[in-house]
Amino acid sequence: MTKRRARKRPVDPKPASEPKPDLNPPADPPADPPTDPPADSEQKAKVPDAAPIANAARPPDIPSSVTDRLNRLPSLSRILSVVMLLLGIVAVGALFYRVMAGFFVPLFLSALLVVIFHPVYDWIYTRIGNRRRTAAVATTFLILTLVLMPIIVVLSVATSQFTSMVSQMNFRDIETALDRAREQVGISLPHAEKFRRLDQLTDAISASSLNDEQRAKLDSDTPLSEFIQVLSSFEQRSDNRELVEAELNEAENLIVFLQQEVDGPVTANAAATVAIDRLEELRRSLAPTKHGPLDLLLPEPSEGVEEQEEVVDQLTADEQFHQKSVIASAAIRSWMKILLGGSFRSQVKLVANPSAEDFKKLLVRARETLQPRFVSLTSATGSYFLQILIGMVVLVISVYFFLVDGAAMIRTLMRLSPLDDNYERRLLLEFDRTSRAVVLASALSALIQGILAGIGFWTLGFESVVLLFLATTLMALVPFLGAASVWVPATLWLGLVEQQWMEAGALAIYGVVIISSIDNVIKVYVLQGRSQLHPLFALLSVLGGVKVFGPIGILVGPMVVVFLQTLLEILNHELEQREEVGTSPASHGLETDR
Question: Which residue windows does the record flag with biased composition (Pro residues) (predicted)?
Fold first, then answer.
């Protein structure tokens, strides 16, 4: 038999909320103090409106938001401290600018070189085991060898060639070259000296008449002193009858000679006949007047207006002479225009064929203008050489330290700058992009154009090839002008002066197809679709940069324009963000809840 176990009944646990029995019974609550109801009722009856009076005497409550704002305002001492700190920063910053302004060019060039050669520095840095200083030294030596030393050598050779070319320049050689050029262009003027002499005689003949201002003075209202002055000058020009007659004879002989010697249109013969007839009429009017010298005709100061009008009437014959002189001079100029091929062409021929004396005067004037500058340059050669040497040393040292500590410098500037870090990174990105666009695209393109042009100049036998290479490289940096501003004049020199038309044509084709076209290929390859400046802004930035910063302005000007464009884009981005925040749905919801 199995023993049957009794099943245990589960015992319900005691609920936790059941209070334990208190063995000590609670004491009786204390009795309330006795109150006097009649006294209390009397007090309430005496002051029935105490609460409204107290509420009226208490000041109104200040909102907590206003209190928080007032507590957040800085104290006056704090404000003064910040103001003094800002003034100190401005003063020290001005002194810092004056100290560092003299080294702007080497520092800027060093920054450009570091940006361009930083990939080379990174490659060397990884190859030599991540040693920064060794990689910086190697990169600096590479920059010095590939960039700075060739520039110094090219400048020295170009200066030497320019000095030699100026010293070998002769006045007769220049005049001969100009004669050849004028013949090729078609503005050569045979018997140029006689044409210039006839032009001078024509001016002298036309100057024998009174001008409009002097005629206006010969009226009844003119003061007597001015009247006498006009008549005196009138007498000095017209009273020398022999001189005027000699000038008329010389002008007539020149017209006859030039009409026979110079080939011209058929109509020039009739114009020459008219001019000679006008000179004959002018000569016939040279008969002396019956009134005698003008000094005898001048009225006394005591005489009145009637005597003055009588003298004016007596000058009618002289006025007729001067009117005929104007007509004769106009006839001579009309004949010269017809003979020389028209009004514009005649003026060009007269201007393009100056006399030897005028040309020498022009050279002397140019030398007098340029000589003081060359004298100051030669006298300050030592100081210029010292400045260049100091600038080169600063450039090399700056390149080294920018390569070593450039990243740390940028982080420090970003930490101290109040500008947002994203904007600072964008400015740095634009500096890197613009540096590569300006230097790698523009400078590299200009260098290759200069090399190609130098090869062409050397092949065609030009002297001073290094000077022409330097000029082509520099002009290639200027938009709209480019290398064509050098090889086009060289082409004209070969054709017009040297009479080498085959070589001139070859140089023109080479310049159009090779030299000037390589610019587009290099810029497209280097920029790789990145945005660049508009051609108008590029030209103005280069010209303005050269005017403000000197030769370095070719690089600085475009970068200033790009930085301004970047800052304006940042400002536009900020304004757009504010507009988006102001028009967002959350802001509208807050306004409706309010």
Answer: 22-37
For 103-156, what is the HEC assignment?
A: HHHHHHHHHHHHHHHHHHHHHHHHHCCCCHHHHHHHHHHHHHHHHHHHHHHHHH
Same-domain check for residues 399 and 450: no
- Dihedral of the alpha carbons of 465, 470, 473, 475, in degrees to the nearest 10: -110
Domain containing 246 equals: 191-352
The answer to whether residues 428 and 395 belong to one domain is no
Question: Which of 312, 287, 311, 317 lies closest to 299, judged by CA?
Answer: 311
**372 occurs within a structural domain:** no
- Determine the Cα–Cα distance for residues 538 and 565; give it in Å rounded to an integer: 13
**587 contacts: CB under 8 Å, gap ≥ 6:** 581
Residue 156 in domain: yes
Sign (positive/negative) of CA torsion 477, 481, 484, 485? negative
Select the highest-mean-pLDDT range: 228-232, 293-297, 510-514.
Answer: 510-514
pLDDT for 142: 92
Distance (Å, whole) CA 335 – CA 324: 17
Q: At 591, is the pLDDT very low, low, confident or very high (cuts 50, 70, 90)?
A: very low
Rounded CA separation 25/16 (Å): 22
Could you give the CA distance from residue 446 to residue 65 in angstroms, rounded to a whole number? 66
* C-alpha distances out from residue 222 to 213, 228, 280, 298, Å: 12, 10, 35, 14
485 and 523, same domain (yes or no):
yes
pLDDT digits (tens, 9 = 90+) for 488-504: 999 988 887 777 889 88
Higher pLDDT, 406 or 588: 406
For residues 161-180, one letter each, b for 16 or more C-beta atoms within 10 angstroms of the residue's C-beta and e for the rest, the string is: beeeeeeeeeeeeeeeebee
Q: How many domains are there within the chain? A: 3
C-alpha–C-alpha distance, residues 496 and 267, integer Å: 31
* Mean pLDDT across the chain: 73
- Asked if the structure places residue 23 within a domain, the reply is no
